[in-house]
Amino acid sequence: MRLTCLVFAVALVGAPPASFEQRADSRESSDHRHSPGSTTAAVDFGVLPVGPIGPPPCLQAGAIGGPADPCSYKLHVLTPEEVTIRKGGEVTFQIHGGGHGFAIYEVSKDTTRDQLGQYLCRGEDPANIADPALHPCNLLAANADAAHRIKDGDRDVVIVARPNLTSGHPDNRVWSPENRLMSAGGVQFLNGGTIPAGPTSNGQLITYQFLKSGRYLVICMNRVHFLNDWMFGFVNVR
Ligand SMILES: [Cu+2]
Hints:
8-stranded mixed β-sheet, globular, binds copper (II) ion, Immunoglobulin-like, alpha+beta
């Protein structure tokens, strides 16, 4: 307990100790709610839009952020996208917006976002694409419904997204039970609350306790969110 308190205090007052340094990855979070080496972490899963996501062609009225909004891909993110906790710690994911599913897989330690994303929608990370016209898989059913074999940094198959032939369970999700640690949001999607991310948000919470060290991939099982828009993040457990 004393060591835990000491580590936590160090994390609060300054830079984390070198031994807790995370991978050199420019996409890694600078979110101050979470310090590398913490026992717990919080991640916002998706974004609740409180108005148009951007200027036209983003929808300006109606089902903003819905499956017909060309800017909806900007909501399909985890914030922070990557966290690091201590073994035995718990991560709490809060759902925001609608139409999400949730699953966790272990991946090799050298798995990167850009490498894994190439198995989903080849090209640039949609999180970095400002203009919806430049997102190659934007609202592209042909990609979301297609089969994908998704490999980690060791080139081991982690997820098999079978083709969506029936649009019913389980085809209508990225449903790959082999090696899966948990899932939520099959059959019925997970939905957030009415208040955006923040201390008063009322979105559903999902918590998972990581008992083994390693690197874990957290995905949205919504085929469009994951396969088109790269809705995934990582948890490192040290
Ligand atoms: Cu989602």
